[in-house]
Amino acid sequence: MEFPAALFPSYFGAGPPREEGGPAPVAGWGEHGQVLEGGLGRRQAQPAFVPRRGATGERWEAADAAAVPVLLPSAGCWIPSPAPQDILYRSSLCKKLRAGKSGATLDFARQLGHFFVDHPEDAFGSLGQLLHKNFYLGNSKLKRPARNSTIRMTALVEDIERLEARRGCPRQHLASRLRWFSHLCRDWLFEVPLGLLADCLHEELIQQWSNLLFDDSLTGGALAWLPREEGGTPVGRLVHPGGQAMNHLYFQDVVLEELPRARGSPVQFELSGRVRQVAAARVDGEDFVGVRSDYHCGVWRVPGRTGAAPVPLQVIRTDVPASCLTVSPHLPGELSVCTQSGTVYLWSVETGLQQLRDDPQTMFFRDHSPWRWSDFTAHPRVLSCADRTGLQCLDARAPKKCHFDLFKVGEEAGCQQGERVVLPMYLGRAHPSQYLVTTQFSMYVLDERLPLVPVLKWAHMMKAPPLFAHLMPGNPGRSHQVLLGASRTQELLLLQYWACFWGVSSGGSQSACQLVGTPQKLHSIAGCLQHLPTQLPHRQHLLQQRLAAPAAGLAATLQEDGLHKSMLVFQLSEAGDVFCQRLTHKAAQPPAPPSRDEATTAPGSSPLFEAPATLRYRRWLRALSRACREPLRHTWHPSLSQRRLFTRRDLEGPAGPSSLQKQMRQRLHQAMREGGRIQRWEPSAVQPPPLPQTLEPAEGPDPLSARLTAAWGGDWEQWWEERTSFSVAQRQRALRERRRRQKRTRGRRSLSASFTSSLTYQSELSELSDAGPPLVSPGRPPILSQEGSPPAGSPAVRSPPTSPAPDEALLSSQSLRCRGIPKERRKTLRDYLSVWAEGPPEPPEPPGSQASQLCIPSSQSQLSSASQPRRKRPRMGF
Amino acid sequence: SSYEHKLNFRKSKEACLSYIQDALLQKQWKRAAEFLTCYVESLEKDYSREHIGPSEMIWRIGTEILWHHSQSSMKEFNCFMEQMKTLGVKRYLKVCLEHVFHLLCNGQIDEAYQNLSLAESWRFGEQTAIQDKEMKLIEAYRGLLDYCSWSKQKNILLEHSEDGFSDLAVEQEMHGYFRKAAVNLKEIIKIPGVWDVFVKCYVDLLEFYGDHNEARQVLNEYAYNSKFPANPNAHVYLYQFLKRQGESKKSLISALKILHDIVPSHELMIDFNTMLQKSKKRKKRRLGLEVIFAALDYAGWKDNAKAWSCLARQVKQIVTSEKHLDWIKQEWNSRKDWWPAFHFSRYLAKRNWQENKSLSYEKALVAGILLGKDCKYFKYVSHQGCKAQLKRFRMLKKFVNRHNLVYLRISG
């Protein structure tokens, strides 16, 4: 590979970037940059100059008016990720955004409020239960004696609402009652100390917000195209994630016809994490596909033959989320992995992991971002590693000693202040020693033989930083195509550049790297909305939301048949949709008559597609509306079978009806037969009926039955006397219980205080809120009084209790314990019962689908055995 | 109110800009031009203190449109550029430079020269650092154009001298160009940067006038000054200069050694290897082996038949002489875990055989010696070669079989 005989002139300086700057909307236009004399030293009449930017390039034109869906939307509705309005402080949002100066204000209070409402048990479980009686929820005024020990909550709520209404007016006099109340109960009311809870929530909010602003976990993109050649018809495989949680990996065969068409059903793997990145490289005629999720990375081998199934090779687990996975284009089964803790590994399927670097600090100056990246270079043993401040190359054989700086955010590359590396990519397929580096402002092409000085620099003017890039190398003597893609704005930009000629100096001109042609914007997924027929408002909104989902990946392929050359660009969205557009190559010519193509590509002027595209769209829309309607139907008829929670024996009532009941029933029957009437509910004999013995279990009857029984017996007054003395005893017991609880919570608090990290507390918290699976307790559990539950075939138990606070009786852990419900089940029961108050339950998680192919790796290596953050339901393999 | 008016004005300005941007990115030059005529209004109330103001935007967008618009002419372009130069003092030099670049790319060398001279004489108060740099570049490019004229005169003169008569006026003119070019070129190459073109021109001038010491100094400075980037071309120019000067092998080797240290994959490494292989000194032959092994580490050299034949020749030589097998052993040690998969896989054997028989011959020889006769690459290629009844490959098979034990000694 020859080095260009002469490079474009440029200044070289060292140090931090001097140029002040920011996003400049048109910075990439109208500049040649530099010129270079082509035929130096030749006997020519006139020297010929070539510009660094601005030479004519190839002409690519969009074949359709918008991108077209490749695959039908998967079943199950997509759950959009949080939008800014979900976590921003609402009232000041518009104002702040208009000013555009200060940062956004997060609505911390609202989120904390959501937590209290959504997880009341976790927020104030025990004390809430204890104090239940002291909170009055009615509208009427409280009477004198009750007022001493009870608060009327409606008044408080009214105050809060009034406060909400005049939010943003600090001068307003606040309700003293509110202040008094919060002052009084701030320290003890909460199950989890409020400060800690707030810390955790705040941390999470900030995380969510920064993800919204810029989510770098998607860097590299989760879409790959594996080209195949099959008897003339161009086919290929699309590797993409899907499913509601984007945790399914699909290998879908696609035939490239007029519109790419899926062939057969995809090979599917279920993984136990959201797929963040899919990287692929072809070595020795086989494709190697690396898949990265937060804590796992896996590698598949896809044999070159068509129809051959992908083979999962290996999986690794990381303690810290991985931020990068790239596949070696040189050696089969080699990958490089970076984690957010600053560790870089060379991962070989045969020999395992080799740590190349372990440094939590950034390389050239301090930057807070834990994002790291690594890729391969022209030398198979030399890897580049990158962070936001630049790139370095390491020799895997002696990573500590042998390294050099490839790119620095600084004066060396003429960077602007605040510029950061967003995506580095090895351009090996076009030129073995060239590298692409994108920042939020510019794109650079670097040659590792001339480190630090970019051989090409251009301001790309994209609204969001380009997280995805795809290279399509041109034939020798042709320009190479690079696609840049952004996530949030779905932007796609096509660039062309010349690198060295492969050894041939055709025309004898220079061969330094130059940007040719003009950058070209391609269709985004959301762009097709204007061409679609108008839908009903709510469906239009749904469609809009779906199509505007951030992009999650980018792939492309060149297709040549005879004279016709075209480019197919695939774009993946976070909702799992894959859209495609075709660009056709026009023979290079001086600016063509613009009238025709400008008219057809101007927005809004071409509502019509070609027929196959229209058909494709119609099918896609139908499938989408079908997929999104289904969960709605779920909400109408919540059907819950209690048999799932309790065995039949649990629900069985006491042994058959009592003798008294039998007697009464007999009398009723007799009276009905005789057509007579019962004058007095008196047994046939004169003596008073025996007191119902069966209704007095060891723990004592429920208040209503006891009262009724007493009234029946005629000594109601005596019962009342007893009752008052009993309630004293009960109150005493409650007090004792409360004291014990307080002791326990105090103990927990002191334990948590010994942890400095709030994260540990968070995990404890989530454990608390996560109920364990219901255990089957030995022995016959005692009866459970039911309220409101449908009599699902079980024998009727007893008359519903109408004690002053039925809910309390039903739900308080104390009463549940009284009823002998085992501790593990109390929470389940409470959740179960609260379902009736809250509405439909979440659909039960489908059992591990046996139909989908499980990934069973041949071996599993682990980065470390130390504990990692809790995951939900680890599945096999991934 | 006026505030609202201002706000609306800004909003519509932004909207207009985004339309223009959209049109540009879709190559709708005509549409962009129409919008730009509206955007010019933004110059009237330029309150912005942004990084790139409206006047710069208009310059950039206008230039881009005029480059591509089907109905634009060079005359219009020049006219537009002249207007743009008056729009902002700070950008005057930059716009001049870009204007010159465009003229140069369109072959209007004389107009470009005039523009450069004009820009050079421009003075406006104190210059900023950036303007200083731009001024230096303007001077350098003028130097380059002077050099081009000099070169043209020189060629005329040479032709004339072939015809047997000399032209004093042309010679005088040529010397004049030399002086002008030399002054300007000398200045820019003192500043750290990549100045390949300027250095080449300056050295050419110096060499023509016999100032070899100055030329050598300039090239040494360009190659070895640590403030300059590690530019491989600087070393290449120095090496070429030394070669032209007929310098000793030793100094040529030392120049290439440094190039090898900074860019082991440079194409001159083949020359370097041949030079070292011919050497009588053991150390140099050893270095030669290192150089060719290192070059073949790189993906760009994978299919380079020349490099493989260099390696094959040297390896064959070592094996037949049975001396210095340890050299191979040492080089092989750090590569034996990845070269087989990188160079000698069965897939590559097939492909190389199909695409380039002589490459596969050289590679098979190296593979047979380094990995033994059972190596996949060697087996496939020698089998195919024998099947095709090529004598060369039969000899190869014999040679490898005879020296099969070498592989045990190398890998052991």
UniProtKB/TrEMBL annotation, chain A:
It holds the Pfam family TAF1C_HB. InterPro entries: TAF1C, TAF1C_beta-prop, TAF1C_C, TAF1C_HB, WD40_repeat_dom_sf. Residues 289-428 form the TAF1C beta-propeller domain. GO terms for cellular component: fibrillar center. Residues 541-758 form the TAF1C helical bundle domain. Residues 869-878 have a biased composition (Basic residues). GO terms for molecular function: RNA polymerase I core promoter sequence-specific DNA binding. Residues 586-608, 650-706, 764-878 are annotated as: Disordered. Residues 852-868 have a biased composition (Low complexity). Residues 671-680 have a biased composition (Basic and acidic residues). Residues 812-878 form the TAF1C C-terminal domain. This is TAF1C polymerase. It comes from Falcunculus frontatus (Eastern shriketit).
From TrEMBL, chain B:
One of its GO terms (cellular component) is RNA polymerase I transcription regulator complex. Pfam families: TAF1_subA (PF14929). GO terms for biological process: transcription by RNA polymerase I. It comes from the Eukaryota. This is TAF1A polymerase. It comes from Falcunculus frontatus (Eastern shriketit). The lineage of its organism: Eukaryota, Metazoa, Chordata, Craniata, Vertebrata.
